[in-house]
Amino acid sequence: MKKENYILNTINEIKKVLQKNDYRRKRYNKDVEWFEDRKNIFEGNIIRIAIMGITSSGKSTLVNALLGEKILPMAIRPSSSIIITACKGENRQATIYFKDKKPQILEGINLNEEIIGEYADESKNPNNGLNVTQIDIKTPYFLLDENIHIIDSPGLDAWNLENHEKLTLEILLPTIDICIFLTTVKATSDEANIEKIKIVDEKEKQIILVQNMIDSIEEKIGRNGIVEEDKSIILKKHKKRAKNLLSQGTKKSESFEVIQISALNGLKGIINRDKELYESSNIQGFIRAIETCISNIIPEINVKRAGSIEERINGIITTDTEIVNGNDAETIEVLKNVKVRDINKFAEDFQNAQEKILLKIKEIEEVISNTINEISSSPAEELQSYLDIVDKINNKNLYIESDILNIVKECEKRKNEIYEKLNLDTRFEYSLSGIESKNIDLKHKYEEKTLLFKKEGVLNKGKRLLSNIFDREWGYKEVEYDEKVVDKEATIDIAQNVCNQNNIQYLNILKEWSTQSNKSINVFYDEVSKRAEEYEEKKKQNIEIYDIEDVNKNLRNFKDILIKLKPYEENGLELAIDREQCDAPESVSYSISKVQYNIYKLSNEIFEKNYLLFGNYIKERSIEKIKQETTEIFWTWDMDSCKEFVSRVFGIHLNEQECEVIEKEGIYSLNNVIIVYDLCRNKFDFYTSLKRIKEKPYNMFIIFNGIQIGNSKKQILESMSLNYFIKNNNNLMINLVIDSWKVFINANNIKELLLDVSSLKNNIISKFNNVKDGYILINSKNPIYNMALIEGQENDNFIISDYRDIKEILFGNQLCRGTEEKETLEEILSYFLNKGNDTK
Fold first, then answer.
1. How many angstroms from the chain centroid is the CA of residue 384?
2. E-assigned strands of 419-511?
């Protein structure tokens, strides 16, 4: 009996024994049906692989690469909470499943990115208004084997979707075999990723940690254009950090592998039939890692399958023994640990859980009601108290949502235990609607106020004395201004609307979850009832002792064979991943002439000089807005990116020792420039230092990862230290600096990136109404892109004539050297042109 076929062979042998004659065929017909069903499932040998990861890590791009064409929309904004599966099929087709109508099949020209986007993209199907539950895509060009199903799960890090990601992890994980945890080479959300990896590891799932977007890595340039670190060295550093994530987040990190890829280059290589580009993407290394991982988990899967067969054999033998001995014990309960009363208890607990969730929803209503009363009874001028009110209600909602999640989590755990005891497959039970709750935003309005300024001169001084006596405004001049105050009525309306929307959302979630759980409960009862019927049918039949004893004897032999073979499978040699093949390709070194080097050095000097001019311009603009001299402050979560930007804009080159100090202490001052590292190790002294420098006038640069826009929003808007620093500082101009911009140029997504960052900027201005509006910039080697960005942002009414004039000037600049620069500049300028037209 071959190792890989021993379960199927055992099933065939069991069926022969159970169908040896007419008596056996009649007596064991239900058992034969069960074994036949299991055989079909095992022959299909479906392996479910979920791609999980932070929003904008390139999940859809990776799935498209595996599909061999661009079918899924590849937006950087979070998609709606719709499960998408991909696998190999004879025909190219997609099936759209709905809650309230029959599935729709897309084929031929109707199966494309635009049409799929109508269902799967949050921007086109907001809040899943079309009630889509799942999209299954099949294509003959799929790069993996027929038995592998890829599941593109909802993003795990979308801003304001924290509870959705927790539900995703708790409900989806039990249904999969392998988790591909997708992040990016320049991810700055290590702490959040470790927590998610821990959850995956707790569910005892195999993990492949994939660092995407190796195409975004650029060599590290030092002074005089010297390459300090090439791409291969930088990638090795990122890989080492990823392995550290696995060691912190899993119990057996040595069993899991880190793979570095460029999903975008893989897809482009396939579409354009560019073999060199495809090979550089390392998609083949990724596929080999999946195949090796499957080889390693097959023994574990076979052990579970063998266990289910043993269990059925035990049931047959126990039933026959009871009947032959004339025992009238309870029917199916003696065959399984799960009894009807256990299912009754689960159904009762589930009912209680629903009632608890309803009470939690009412708590949200009470919080909103109390907030409305508090807003109504407070003076409109007390701006800070309103910020506190808004924060309080939003934080209270998060606590209540957390309680709801814990209730769901406990029920899901109990449900999965019953599935396992009844030997039922949970892997195709996943379905989940979104849980995006709304936050309350503070609304403002402007009221006309008057300030009195003293008039110069002795006569006016006398008038002011008389004005105090006669309650007049003599000796003063009036200056009108607009004061920003809270719009109480608008805020109350929003609070009420948010309450209503959240209630509807939670009730919909409760309804969806109830439908799924009730379906599971019915499955449990049906299974127990079916086994009871089988027992009763056997009990009514004649007892042919010879056949029954012969069947039982053979079944015991099969069980012994399964028991002996199980350790063989469990202890089978793991196939180690060929790390050299799975690693991203190394950079190639080659010699260049002295003339070539001098030209290269000269071009870098041009970049450096222009960037210093650019930095001085930004500084001057901050002084104009704040009306006094400012200090430059750089706030970051990634020291490498910050170090790069500071050197470009102000010519300050930090060495390794200085970076180590910053990463430890969090704050470092040098040449009237302050660098703040939000993830520093010494948090206590960090806050003390922040307090000392808090009140100065600043020109602030917040440097963040543009790829992970969801996580960046959380970092910026929820950072306690940043919030503390910005709060009440009226002499502060904020500039947003996008790092990892190269990916968006490669993917032609610059416009969408700017749209999302503009939204982030509006959120910051709304939350911190005291700050001065700065610029959106990018951390690029070439300053020409930031020149275009500033031109676009300083022209409020950007019209076609501005577009043409600025484009002509930028295209004529010596920094605009090639096709990529021209295409990117055109994308940036056209974004502002469209924005200007939209605001008219």
1. 33
2. 444-454, 476-486
User: What DSSP line would sit under 562-576, residue for residue?
Assistant: HHHHHHHHHTPPP--
DSSP alpha helices (H): ranges in 673-783? Answer: 683-693, 709-718, 720-726, 742-746, 750-767
Which two tokens mark 790? 């500033």
Torsion of CA 590, 241, 55, 142, to 10 degrees: 60
C-alpha span between 807 and 570 (Å, rounded): 66
| 534 and 28 Cβ atoms separated by less than 8 Å | no
CB 544 within 8 A of CB 23: yes
228-242, 325-339, 607-621: lowest mean pLDDT where?
A: 325-339
* Residue 712 CB neighbours (<10 A): 29
The pLDDT value given to residue 266: 94
- What confidence tens digit (pLDDT) does each residue in 254-279 have? 778 899 999 999 999 999 999 999 99
**Residue 620, pLDDT above cutoff 70:** yes
Q: How far apart, in whole angstroms, are the C-alpha atoms of residue 252 and residue 115?
A: 43
Radius of gyration of the chain (CA): 33
Contacting residues for 337 by C-beta, under 8 A, at least 6 apart: 421
Structure tokens at 273: 């039939």
Helices marked H in 206-339 — which ranges? 231-249, 263-271, 275-281, 283-325
pTM here is 0.69
Q: Tokens for 639? A: 């020291």
Work out the angle between the directed axes of helices 488-540 and 340-377 (0-180°, nearest 10).
Answer: 180
Minimal CA–CA distance to 789: which of 828, 742, 835? Answer: 828
Q: What is the largest CA-CA distance in the chain?
A: 128
Q: Whose structure tokens read 């195949």?
A: 291
Which phi and psi (to 5°) does residue 52 adopt? -115, 155
Categorise residue 273: left if φ over 0, alpha if ψ from -120 to 50, beta otherwise.
left
Structure tokens at 834: 């469209």
